[in-house]
């Protein structure tokens, strides 16, 4: 009788070892791919949490946005948030990547050095915010008697505590400008609204035609009126037929110079 309990032959052992080896070779990348996916997902979730915190902080305090800079490490941002009283659990990349701020003109994002993807938070500039509020105000009062520019500006000013917001020009001489909405009543379209700014501390409701600075809502840029020699002209008289013609003029004329501004309270 043949011994049925005989061991494996060398060939059988080799075959088994080779098969196990093949399985392991296939399984390790599958497992590590899965692990990478899990870590990438966890990282994306942490970056989203970080972005949400940043968005909330900006909503609570405009100046927080100004304090963020492109490339700022997340740790410093987190430190600022903690300093302001936010309760922050550890937000970090599970693969050891480092988080930092990516700041564009109209967006803020939290990026990872090891993982990509994830959305930006769109940031509304104070200019866009004021314009949006004024357009909503116009829309709510459409068709009422006295819905012309000066009446609407006047009422809006009153409702905002008799205050216009203020700003300075970056790289300028520190002059404070108050900025205000203007509605081109002739068009009867609340979208034909833009902002202008003039020297002032924000308490002045003067309906004058002097427009040293205008805001182009189409590209969210402030333009300063300059003389032919390039020096600022605070006493130019300007009017535009509608938002589009404003955009066309300021973005092409040498008498309007695009400027960056810093928003004050
Ligand atoms: Zn990461």
Small-molecule binders: zinc ion
Largest beta sheet, briefly?
A: 7 strands, antiparallel
Average pLDDT: 88
Q: Strand fraction band?
A: 15-25%
The total domain count is: 2
Strand arrangement within the widest β-sheet reads 9-8-7-6-5-4-10
Q: What is the CATH level 1 assignment of the largest domain?
A: Alpha Beta
Order of helices and strands: HHHEEEHHEEEEEHEE
- Named at the architecture level, the CATH assignment of the largest domain is 2-Layer Sandwich
Q: Enumerate the spans where pLDDT stays under 50 for 5 or more consecutive residues.
A: none
Description:
This protein is of the alpha+beta class and about 260 residues long. It has two domains: about 10-120, Pantoate--beta-alanine Ligase, Chain: A,domain 2 (2-Layer Sandwich); about 125-265, TcpA-like pilin, CATH 3.30.1690. About 40% of the residues lie in helices and about 20% in strands. The strands form two sheets. It has a seven-stranded antiparallel β-sheet. The protein has a three-stranded antiparallel β-sheet with strand order 1-2-3. Strand 7 and strand 8 form a beta hairpin. The radius of gyration is 30 Å and the shape is elongated. The chain starts with 9 loop residues before the first helix and ends with a strand. The mean pLDDT is about 90. Bound molecules: zinc ion. Zinc ion (ZN) binds near residues 43, 114 and 115.
Ordered list of secondary-structure elements with their pairings:
Elements: H1 10-60, H2 62-67, H3 74-83, E1 99-103, E2 107-112, E3 121-122, H4 126-140, H5 149-159, E4 166-169, E5 177-183, E6 193-199, E7 213-216, E8 221-225, H6 243-250, E9 256-259, E10 261-263
Antiparallel strand pairs: 1-2, 2-3, 4-5, 4-10, 5-6, 6-7, 7-8, 8-9
